[in-house]
Amino acid sequence: MKGNGNVQFIQPELKPQNTSVKIIEKLKDTNVNLNLVEDLEPGPSYKMKFISDDKRARFVKEVLHAHNKLREHHGTDPLDLEKKLMDDAQSYADECAKGGGIVPRRQVSNYGENIWGLTTNASDFEDFTGGRPVEKWYSEVKKYKFGAEPVDNSAGHLTQLLWSKSKYLGVGMAANDNGQLFVVCEYYPPGNYLGEYPTNVKPLKKPLTEKDLKEIGISSIFINQITDGSPNKTTAKPGSAEELRQNYTLQFHNEKRLLHPVAPLVYNEELESLAKDWAETLLKEGKFYHRPNNKYGENIFFYTASFYLEDDDVIRKSLNAWYNEIEAYVDLFDKEPSIEQLTSGTPTGHFTQVVWKGTTEVGLGVARKDSDESHLVVVVANYAPPGNILGRFRENVFPPIEWKKNVTSNTGRNGAS
Prior knowledge:
- The chain is α/β, with parallel strands linked by helices and 417 residues long.
- The protein has two domains: 8-221, CATH 3.40.33.10; 240-406, CATH 3.40.33.10.
- 37% of the residues lie in helices and 16% in strands.
- Strands 1-10-12-11-9 form a five-stranded mixed sheet. A five-stranded mixed sheet has the order 3-5-7-8-6. Strands 2-4 form a two-stranded antiparallel ribbon.
- A hairpin with a 4-residue loop joins strand 7 and strand 8 (180-188).
- The longest helix is centred in the first third of the chain and has 21 residues, at 53-73.
- The protein is elongated, with a radius of gyration of 23 Å.
- One of its GO terms (cellular component) is extracellular region.
């Protein structure tokens, strides 16, 4: 299965200096402060992917809510939206989208700033929520030592997000015809001043529950639920990139499996080592095929993008690509498909392996080849026991639970009439 980071879109002309006015009208139920900070010159018009005012307004609300929920749990006052900050954030997001990357500002900003981007496609974009960039920034919590001055800026997004002296927020989002999406948040007064971190970046005061994180669209990986003796426990150093990659692998696999009547997977580092080795081999050879004589199940994904993709985005895209093969499997549920049905037409083997009931363990490896022009990522996942065994599909691959509910509900209504 392969992905392409260069999805083309037909884009109308937009005038970013007018955008926030329309959005403000749709945010009447949100506390928006107007014209409290210094005026900015309006930016020029840019060609970009069309984003409706309704989508922008919903996105702004989600970003604001995610910020304030996290600030609340850290004992910090909420932020209010501010029109000029919104104008500036939107204008700069447009500039980044037009330039295909983080572009130099034409003038020094007086605001604090968090920026995030990813390469996306049409289906990803429709599912995009304001919690995703906030999740990325908040994930730096594992690098930060509360109550002390930082030794570097590795958690700078987190500290600006939580900075107690910051009172106002502006949010901008823009996408270009290369499928790149940029999110810019502006803060006033700005944060991240040396000597002021302990008093402005407060530790967690109230525990975050899974319900809290689900409400704002943030992963539950920030709650340490792994205890001694748990089958999910690995040798990865807590808070390391390795642990995060393992957690993302489980999270995104089990989110898909949760849709079906099958148990969640646990992580296996031996499978990870095998997968990592094969991903590196494929990257070196520039070919994409399954490991010969592999006794484990295996899914492969590769993706090219014009800028660097974090592990969570790569793993999320992999699982979405594999799971989306369900569309070609619809007529095969509750049947024992033949080899001809399984190998002709659109592939379905990635999907069936992800949701295979008999599979209990997974390990995943990522290999990268980066240059100034492009970034190639290869993902390999290995599974044990393996799935996709001929003659056992009907007992291992089930339709989504929601489909069964809908059929039962519709049958009940018809019977009553």
